[in-house]
Amino acid sequence: QVQLVESGGGLVQAGGSLTLSCAASRRTFSMYAMGWFRQAPGKEREFVAAISWNGGNTDYRDSVKGRFTISRDNAKNTMYLQMNSLKPEDTALYYCAADKALRVVRSHPGYWGQGTQVTVSS
């Protein structure tokens, strides 16, 4: 079982930046691929970014490429999402997710956090 806790959300103006963190409970954190998803009001949850167990492979949805950066620190059991040039359409509840394989994290991860709210004002 992997427990995930997100932090770092908040209210920011358009064009601003935020960094989300996801802390994992297990010492075997480094064995898991990790990802970020988001869900805006009235919309389905969507994939944002993913990173392999060693950080060697990353993937992003097209709308955040060049603005968001996913990273991880296995020594701290923590994953990050650096979000720059934020837009009002980035407003959503952001979820951390984990699974053993990167391809699984991108589509249907088995472990989820509770979410952290990001609100971007225009």
Could you explain the architecture of this structure?
The structure is a single chain. The protein has 122 residues and is mostly beta strands. It is 3% helix and 48% strand. The chain has one helix and eleven strands, in the order βββββββββαββ. Strands 2, 4, 5, 6, 9, 10 and 11 form a seven-stranded mixed β-sheet that branches. The chain has a four-stranded antiparallel β-sheet with strand order 1-3-8-7, with no helix packed on it. The relative contact order is 0.31. The mean pLDDT is 96.
In short:
With 122 residues, the protein is mainly beta. Helices cover 3% and strands 48% of the residues.
Q: Output the number of helix runs.
A: 1
Shape: globular
Distance between the termini: 40 Å
Q: Quick one: biggest sheet?
A: 7 strands, mixed
Sketch the topology as an H/E string, one letter per element: EEEEEEEEEHEE
Number of strands: 11
- Strand percent estimate: over 45%
Radius of gyration: 13 Å
Mean pLDDT level: 96
**Secondary structure category:** mainly beta
Helix content: under 10%
Q: Which spans of ≥5 residues are poorly predicted at pLDDT below 50? A: none
Structural key phrases:
7-stranded mixed sheet; mainly beta; 4-stranded antiparallel sheet; globular; 122 residues
Task: Chart the SSEs and their pairings.
Elements: E1 4-7, E2 10-13, E3 18-24, E4 33-39, E5 46-51, E6 58-60, E7 68-73, E8 78-83, E9 92-99, H1 102-105, E10 111-112, E11 116-121
